[in-house]
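User:
Care to share a sequence and C-alpha cells?

Assistant:
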Amino acid sequence: MFIRLIIADAEKARSRGLEPVNDLVCNENYCSSSQGYPVFILPNEQLLDCGTWRELRDECGATMETDNLVKLCLGVGIPRDEPGVTLVK
C-alpha cells in the first residue's frame, strides 16, 4: 500500500516542513482507535487526520494518491468521495 501527498506549491510545502511530493508512512503497530485503523504520519512527524488533510488541501492545493482507498479513508477519517483523493491502480 502507498499514499503519496502532493503539494503543488513548493514554497507552501516547505513552510510546513514538507516536500512537494511526500510518501507517507503507515504505522500499523500504532492504531488510532480501538477498531485498529491505521495511522499515517507525515514526514514532519505530524499525524495525518481529517483536519490536517483538509487544511493542506484547501490552503496548499494538496492532493493524495493511493492504491488502497479504504485503508486511507479509515485512517484519515474521510469519505471515499473526498475531493483531492485519487485511486491509482
Notes: The beta strands are 3-6, 21-23, 25-27, 39-41, 63-66, 85-87. DSSP finds three helices and six strands in the chain.
